[in-house]
Inverse folding.
């Protein structure tokens, strides 16, 4: 099922592109793979680090595995650029692994949307940096980042 996901391309105004980015951030912070997958076309294509993923079922499986590994996951996305049916974002997220080591993962994504506002292509480059727990910056309760929480730019990231 393909339910439209506004805002729709073409992205002509920064506010519409920024809203699309925030909606994606909110969805990922929900850590609900089935819900998240509905924002992508049924045949959506991803490159995530060195993994190549296609289709909603593969997206769901990938996200379930991701959040088994990445505990206490909190993500901030920020609009970088936009045009027509494409958006570029930068992001950072914090998490810890099974050994209790904290990480901040930094990355960039290129997104391409269909006319219904569903993402048909997601290309992500991500680097993990080990941090001390005392270096964490993302402290809201699991779920949606509060509106008054600093952005990546405001945090100097």
């Amino acid at each position: 099922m393909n339910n439209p996901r506004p805002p729709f391309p073409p992205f002509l105004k920064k506010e519409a592109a920024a809203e699309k980015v925030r909606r994606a951030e909110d969805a990922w912070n929900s850590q609900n793979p089935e819900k998240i997958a509905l924002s992508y076309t049924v045949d959506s294509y991803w490159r995530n680090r060195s993994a190549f993923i296609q289709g909603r079922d593969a997206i769901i499986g990938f996200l379930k595995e991701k959040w088994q590994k990445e505990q206490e996951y909190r993500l901030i996305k920020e609009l970088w650029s936009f045009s027509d049916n494409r958006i570029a974002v930068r992001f950072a997220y914090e998490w810890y692994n099974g050994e209790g080591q904290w990480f901040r993962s930094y990355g960039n994504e290129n997104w391409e949307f269909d006319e219904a506002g569903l993402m048909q292509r997601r290309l992500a480059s991500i680097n993990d940096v080990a941090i001390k727990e005392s270096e964490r910056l993302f402290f809201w309760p699991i779920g949606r980042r509060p509106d008054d929480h600093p952005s990546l730019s405001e945090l100097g990231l």
